[in-house]
Amino acid sequence: MQIKQKRVAAIHDISCVGRCSLTVALPILSAAGFDTSVLPTAVLSTHTGGFENFTYRDLTDDIRPISDHWQSLNLEFDALYSGFLGSFEQIDLVAHLFDTFQSEKNLTLVDPVMADHGELYSIYTPEMAKGMTTLCAKADIIVPNLTEAAFLLDEPYVGEDYDQNYVEELLVKLSQLGSKKVVVTGISFDPSQLGAATYDTETRIFDYAFNDRVSDYFHGTGDIFGSTLLSGLLNDFNLKESTQIAVDYTRECILKTVELGQEKRYGVCFERAIPYLIKRLGL
């Protein structure tokens, strides 16, 4: 029996220079074997980390017409995947898109891309951060980092001052926003290791995925992680396995970047590591 190719709707911004958001999600999901449809939330000349004077075009007015046209075509998606949103109004628009295309057969992953290192990104406001909980409530799985988790829960950012008990309490509180599964990135209990923590509300199991830490900070790794996590899940790996693949592939991308001496503000050289991803996914 012929198996239908799965289709993903990726709802992110486009940074014309600097590998992140759609310029990461589209090639990774495509390499993982999926027909990837895109809905841009904004267009920027570069991403916002490490660059100044970037241009920014808000595409809020385009989201509903695109969604309506997709609906008129009777499109069905195996996964809905949202990331960086360009305005407060987009939260309700993406929520409407979820309501339109969600079904019992598909998966919705929300990466609440809005903050890092204890601070919101430049175009985000506390109101937008609070509003993001609306999308998290509609998701099957959410993938915040520690900073985003703090803003979603309206709690202080703890930095590196946490233990396993704190992380597991955080995962449970995040799941109470409405998603069945939660993955929190940027978790470390050992300075030499970095990874992610997961929680499944149906099994009530906590899991962890780690790999050796590469020192320094690299832009776009969160988008690589989220896109890879979704790729694993859609290729029928479980949550723990998919998270480990995402941790390992993200590290592999960073290693390629260091090896090539790539200027880090342009993002990591994920393209060079795609063969590794395809092998890990068994494709």
UniProtKB/TrEMBL annotation:
Enzyme Commission (EC) number: 2.7.1.35
Protein name as annotated: pyridoxal kinase
Lineage, uppermost ranks: Bacteria, Bacillati, Bacillota, Clostridia, Eubacteriales
Domain of life: Bacteria
Record-linked Pfam families: Phos_pyr_kin
Any one GO MF annotation of this record: pyridoxal kinase activity
Record key words, sorted: ATP-binding, Kinase, Nucleotide-binding, Transferase
NCBIfam families: PRK07105.1 (NF005491)
InterPro entries cross-referenced by the UniProt entry: PM/HMP-P_kinase-1 (IPR013749), PyrdxlKinase (IPR004625), Ribokinase-like (IPR029056)
Residue ranges crossing the lipid bilayer per the database entry: none
UniProt keyword Iron-sulfur present: no
The UniProt record lists the keyword Nucleotide-binding: yes
Domain Pyridoxamine kinase/Phosphomethylpyrimidine kinase positions: 75-263
